[in-house]
Amino acid sequence: MTLDEIRTRLSTLDAQLLGLVAERQRLSREVAEAKRATGRGTRDFQREREVLMRARDMAASMDLSPDLAESVLRLLIRGSLTTQERMRVAAGGRGSGRSALVIGGAGKMGRWFVEFLASQGYHVVIADPAGSLEGFTTVLDWRATPLDHDLIVIATPLQIANTVLHELAARKPRGIVFDIGSLKSPLRTGIRAMQEAGCRITSVHPMFGPDTELLSGRHVIFVDAGNAEAIEEARSLFASTMAEHVVMSLDEHDRLIAYVLGLSHALNIAFFTALANSGEAAPRLAQLSSTTYDAQVDVATRVARESPELYFEIQSLNDYGRESLSALRAAVEQLWSAVSNDNAAEFAAMMQQGREYLAGRVREA
Hints:
- It is a single chain.
- The chain has helices at residues 3-38, 45-61, 66-92, 108-119, 158-171, 188-196, 228-236, 250-278, 282-286, 291-304, 308-316, 321-340, 344-364; strands at 99-103, 123-127, 137-139, 151-154, 176-179, 201-206, 219-223, 244-248.
- It is an alpha/beta fold and 365 residues long.
- The chain folds into three domains: 3-91, Chorismate mutase (Chorismate Mutase Domain, subunit A); 93-248, 3-Layer(aba) Sandwich (Rossmann fold), CATH 3.40.50.720; 254-364, 6-phosphogluconate dehydrogenase C-terminal like domain (6-phosphogluconate dehydrogenase C-terminal fold).
- The chain has an eight-stranded mixed sheet with strand order 3-2-1-4-5-6-7-8, with helices on both faces.
- The longest helix is centred in the N-terminal third of the chain and has 36 residues, at 3-38.
């Protein structure tokens, strides 16, 4: 065959492959219906393992890379699980006949919650001067609403969220209220005002970004603000998903988030700042890159694209934020000391300490 004929054949195969993927997705919907009818969970790890092992065996017999076959099947399984999870959430219908107000609903995470609540049958109203979403009722200012909603979600920047909480406390809405901020320290006074007003208040932290489709393996944190009903109502929104629920106090949340978000962000900001200040051209470094470097650059690139305002808030507004930054500075100084003093034993001790710590993480997972 000529090159053009080969390309035409490849295009035909691509179309056939996509057709088979579409058929697999249709069957996934049938699987979801069958699981729901029999009360079975969305995810079946044993079945997934069987599918992946069979794919590897078949690939070996076809002179195809087993790793490639497994990667393709993992993507297809993920797509199937996403379809099944969405159907389960919609079938739950917790919001049928109920209303929700999302303050800041035109933002990235605000939009995620708007669509998530709508999929459960809520009539969602967006309050956001920045814009609207097609198909949803939008008001520019939440203050102009009667606040008679069953659920109110605050998806604004942190410092605005605290002001919103204070203003809501003055009006004492009847519905459940929660914010979705990455930190809770800046919201202390607002949450306290809601508590004192007798409002049903909690605080939620979805540990995923707005592009997330599948919640399997993701965590949602629920901060106890003294109202058990509010926590259970917020948790019930995620009952049909595969997300893991974690309930904790405000102080414990921010102390741990200082490491989970604050430290990881700071490390990547320091990494790409060091590279940018090095004078070495990024394309030139890429020609010499290693597996570790490439993985770190991928993460750092995603961090660099995020909102500077949000990431500064995470560093500066957390009551426990300086703790993780001090730990990072001390670790760099320890590394500097070991290398500059030619202390191989101290360097090895740092490596061993890291291995032991991370091995504990794997065991617990």
